[in-house]
Amino acid sequence: MSTSLFDPVRLRDLDIPNRVWMAPMCQYSADADGLAVGAPNDWHFQHYVSRAVGGAGLILFEATGVSAEGRISPNDLGLWNETQAEAFARVVEQVRSYGAVAGLQLAHAGRKGGTDAPWRGEGPLTAEEGGWTPLGPSPVPFDERHAVPHELSREELRDVVAEFAASAKLALEAGFEVVEVHGAHGYLLSSFLSPYANRREDEYGGSFENRVRFPLEVVDAVREVWPERLPVLFRISATDWIDEGGWTLDDTVRFAPLLAAHGVDLLDLSSGGNVAGARVASGPGYQVPFASRVKRETGLATGAVGLITEPAQAAKILADGEADVVLLGRELLRDPYWPRRAARELGVEAVTRPLAAPPQYARS
Ligand SMILES: Cc1cc2nc3c(=O)[nH]c(=O)nc-3n(C[C@H](O)[C@H](O)[C@H](O)COP(=O)(O)O)c2cc1C
Fold this sequence. Notes:
Helices cover 32% and strands 15% of the residues. The chain has helices spanning 42-53, 82-97, 154-173, 188-193, 208-225, 249-261, 288-298, 311-319, 330-334, 338-345; strands spanning 9-11, 14-16, 20-22, 58-65, 101-107, 135-136, 150-151, 178-183, 232-237, 266-270, 301-305, 325-328. The longest helix has 20 residues, at 154-173. The protein is globular. Flavin mononucleotide binds at residues 23-26, 62-63, 105, 182, 184-185, 235, 270, 305-308, 328-331.
């Protein structure tokens, strides 16, 4: 079967060597404080470099806080100082040396910040445990376990916008060639979009135009410091998965051309995260129709993610024109070499990096 899965994709002036991308996945493994706070360490090094050796075209580094309060857990990666930028540069340099492109997801956890790693129960942390008061559009907690967020003032919103720009600058310095603005999963930008989480009565809440204002200000600020020649991606939760009172797929279709007009080159379509307990209709490729509809109706390039696990399934998504690229999360945790295995299974000759094995493994 012929497939475009391993064809390069060009965004602005950047050629990304194939269309199997690593989805951003928090590792909750950085130091929580001290000099190396938020900086990638040996765990992150092996984690990201292995997936580059495994053949993914774009390695999207996990949600990285643009400030200390922008982290989800105290052990999240962060990028707000030079020490962190230098630590990122070491990993990025290695990822790139295997032929993959390195991208960073710039994030602010918003009202879901200050919580523990999932394997420690994900619970909100007190100040003594290293937690902090989370920030949000409105003083509405995510659920009964989470703290009531501090409602960001207009001035504080301007500060957050500036933090995104400063972090993007540091990402460029560290060698990243792609940034993805995290607008999904109920974190800060996502919570501004959703009328369920955003109850503001100023120009940042209420109407659709008001709710998209802050995320677009962040995109503008990132675009301003990010080179013209390099792409900016945006990850969105395409739906809140509730019948009424939430962000919907229609909203996403309406928002996509605005993102494009503000300089976003590809929309990465995930879902959920604003409404605790919302029923997600999960299953193989369950979010592909979101990518497909946005691509069809707006012409914006899209990425499909969510339970894409089989080579033939991934190939079909592209062959059917449902998305421009696929992103794999958990399957790449199970098998860092999935792209190379998929190429073999699909009969694609892997001659170029990152798909071709490094010389040390050539005899395999
Ligand atoms: C351990 C883990 C951490 C994750 N962290 C992030 C993250 O930092 N940013 C993000 O946008 N999504 C995150 N996600 C969601 C994934 O990027 C992906 O969208 C999701 O797992 C569905 O894809 P999959 O079925 O291929 O795993 C995470 C998922 C997992 C399993």
